[in-house]
């Protein structure tokens, strides 16, 4: 039974202790649905602060089912919500980066703003999500890659499922998803669909103790580095500090129109990912190489984008990424 809990005024920024307590009440199901809906909606309308994002993430992390991860493990994930309906770039990036020798704990879920999220596409490729989640720690240790299905690792979110459906728009829980990785990774490449929000998000990552991260946004906007034009990167920690602007040409790549990355359902996106790993050239490959290069910099495996592109391309062209995917499916 829901306990009537008085939430703070979401119209004004909350301090850490207040936000942490409020999100604890929400995640523990102690708040009436109408009150929870109003609280989350008002907060989203005024834009969440870095302190609130960090506090909400910490509350969720305190309640998640976590796994052990090797040193240097990384995640590549976006907040979603850019409405581009593109192919699964971050999913392909996870496989390619893992094939380069970087442990990747891929945190993901079903599609929210696209036809096929990371889990939908991996399932269409043949990955058994229940088995992959149950053996995530083993596959991360043995193969260097794991899929952490958000629905299974964050049972506390069930209390807010109906509320989030009723709101029907982005809430703070879309923002904290990438930084509530069940493997507790401290190195991340995170796509944020709002370039102007990158500094706020970066400060939230500092507050939760992130070691090395890039927050990226394409100008379109996209929640990944754009292969169509300029992008913004905010770096923190071991991979550098500050804000930079990059283009595909900076990584030695050519531009492609966003339409060339248009995705479809899970079967469509899975087939495209298979062709990519088989060596098909084009916009999808270049988008994956660009974002994989950034992830390799975050992981300390590449000094710059051009070196990262070269390393990622080699993992594809030598068949290492394809082999890794097949091994993962059979694991």
UniProtKB/TrEMBL annotation:
<keyword id="KW-0057">Aromatic amino acid biosynthesis</keyword>
<dbReference type="InterPro" id="IPR000312">
    <property type="entry name" value="Glycosyl_Trfase_fam3"/>
</dbReference>
<feature type="binding site">
    <location>
        <position position="118"/>
    </location>
    <ligand>
        <name>5-phospho-alpha-D-ribose 1-diphosphate</name>
    </ligand>
</feature>
<feature type="domain" description="Glycosyl transferase family 3">
    <location>
        <begin position="73"/>
        <end position="321"/>
    </location>
</feature>
<feature type="binding site">
    <location>
        <position position="224"/>
    </location>
    <ligand>
        <name>Mg(2+) 2</name>
    </ligand>
</feature>
<feature type="binding site">
    <location>
        <position position="109"/>
    </location>
    <ligand>
        <name>anthranilate 1</name>
    </ligand>
</feature>
<dbReference type="Pfam" id="PF00591">
    <property type="entry name" value="Glycos_transf_3"/>
</dbReference>
<keyword id="KW-0328">Glycosyltransferase</keyword>
<dbReference type="InterPro" id="IPR005940">
    <property type="entry name" value="Anthranilate_Pribosyl_Tfrase"/>
</dbReference>
<keyword id="KW-0808">Transferase</keyword>
<comment type="function">
    <text>Catalyzes the transfer of the phosphoribosyl group of 5-phosphorylribose-1-pyrophosphate (PRPP) to anthranilate to yield N-(5'-phosphoribosyl)-anthranilate (PRA).</text>
</comment>
<comment type="similarity">
    <text>In the C-terminal section; belongs to the anthranilate phosphoribosyltransferase family.</text>
</comment>
<protein>
    <recommendedName>
        <fullName>Anthranilate phosphoribosyltransferase</fullName>
        <ecNumber>2.4.2.18</ecNumber>
    </recommendedName>
</protein>
<feature type="binding site">
    <location>
        <position position="223"/>
    </location>
    <ligand>
        <name>Mg(2+) 2</name>
    </ligand>
</feature>
<keyword id="KW-0822">Tryptophan biosynthesis</keyword>
<comment type="similarity">
    <text>Belongs to the anthranilate phosphoribosyltransferase family.</text>
</comment>
<keyword id="KW-0479">Metal-binding</keyword>
<feature type="binding site">
    <location>
        <position position="86"/>
    </location>
    <ligand>
        <name>5-phospho-alpha-D-ribose 1-diphosphate</name>
    </ligand>
</feature>
<feature type="binding site">
    <location>
        <position position="78"/>
    </location>
    <ligand>
        <name>5-phospho-alpha-D-ribose 1-diphosphate</name>
    </ligand>
</feature>
<dbReference type="InterPro" id="IPR035902">
    <property type="entry name" value="Nuc_phospho_transferase"/>
</dbReference>
<keyword id="KW-0460">Magnesium</keyword>
<feature type="binding site">
    <location>
        <position position="164"/>
    </location>
    <ligand>
        <name>anthranilate 2</name>
    </ligand>
</feature>
<feature type="binding site">
    <location>
        <begin position="81"/>
        <end position="82"/>
    </location>
    <ligand>
        <name>5-phospho-alpha-D-ribose 1-diphosphate</name>
    </ligand>
</feature>
<comment type="subunit">
    <text>Homodimer.</text>
</comment>
<dbReference type="GO" id="GO:0004048">
    <property type="term" value="F:anthranilate phosphoribosyltransferase activity"/>
</dbReference>
<feature type="binding site">
    <location>
        <begin position="88"/>
        <end position="91"/>
    </location>
    <ligand>
        <name>5-phospho-alpha-D-ribose 1-diphosphate</name>
    </ligand>
</feature>
<dbReference type="GO" id="GO:0000162">
    <property type="term" value="P:L-tryptophan biosynthetic process"/>
</dbReference>
<feature type="binding site">
    <location>
        <begin position="106"/>
        <end position="114"/>
    </location>
    <ligand>
        <name>5-phospho-alpha-D-ribose 1-diphosphate</name>
    </ligand>
</feature>
<feature type="binding site">
    <location>
        <position position="224"/>
    </location>
    <ligand>
        <name>Mg(2+) 1</name>
    </ligand>
</feature>
<keyword id="KW-0028">Amino-acid biosynthesis</keyword>
<feature type="binding site">
    <location>
        <position position="78"/>
    </location>
    <ligand>
        <name>anthranilate 1</name>
    </ligand>
</feature>
<feature type="binding site">
    <location>
        <position position="90"/>
    </location>
    <ligand>
        <name>Mg(2+) 1</name>
    </ligand>
</feature>
<dbReference type="GO" id="GO:0000287">
    <property type="term" value="F:magnesium ion binding"/>
</dbReference>
<dbReference type="GO" id="GO:0005829">
    <property type="term" value="C:cytosol"/>
</dbReference>
<comment type="pathway">
    <text>Amino-acid biosynthesis; L-tryptophan biosynthesis; L-tryptophan from chorismate: step 2/5.</text>
</comment>
């Amino acid at each position: 039974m829901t306990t009537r809990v008085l939430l703070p005024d979401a119209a004004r920024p909350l301090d850490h202790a207040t936000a942490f307590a409020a999100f604890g009440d929400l995640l523990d199901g102690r708040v009436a649905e109408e009150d929870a809906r109003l609280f989350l909606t008002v907060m989203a309308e005024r834009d969440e602060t870095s302190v609130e994002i960090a506090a909400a993430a910490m509350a969720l992390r305190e309640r998640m089912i976590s796994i052990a991860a090797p040193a240097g493990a990384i995640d590549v994930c976006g907040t979603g919500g850019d409405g581009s309906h593109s192919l699964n770039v971050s999913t392909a990036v996870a496989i390619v980066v893992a094939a380069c020798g970087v442990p990747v704990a891929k945190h993901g879920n079903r599609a929210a703003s696209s036809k096929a999220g990371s889990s939908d596409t991996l399932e269409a490729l043949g990955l058994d999500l229940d088995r992959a989640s149950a053996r995530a720690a083993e596959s991360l240790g043995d193969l260097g890659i794991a899929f952490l299905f958000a629905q299974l690792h964050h049972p506390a979110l069930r209390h807010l499922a109906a509320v989030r459906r009723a709101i029907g728009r982005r809430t703070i829980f879309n923002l904290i998803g990438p930084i509530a990785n069940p493997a507790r990774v401290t190195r991340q490449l995170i796509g944020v669909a709002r370039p102007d929000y990158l500094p706020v998000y970066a400060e939230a990552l500092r507050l939760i103790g992130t070691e090395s991260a890039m927050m990226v946004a394409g100008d379109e906007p996209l929640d990944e580095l754009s292969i169509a034009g300029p992008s913004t990167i905010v770096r923190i920690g071991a991979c550098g500090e500050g804000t930079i602007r990059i283009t595909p040409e900076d990584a030695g790549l050519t531009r492609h129109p966003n339409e060339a990355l248009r995705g479809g359902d899970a079967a469509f996106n899975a087939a495209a990912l298979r062709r990519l790993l088989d060596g098909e050239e084009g916009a999808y490959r270049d988008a994956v190489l660009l974002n994989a290069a950034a992830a390799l910099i975050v992981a300390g495996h590449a000094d710059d984008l051009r070196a990262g592109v070269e390393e990622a391309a080699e993992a594809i062209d030598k068949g290492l990424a394809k082999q890794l995917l097949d091994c993962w499916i059979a694991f």
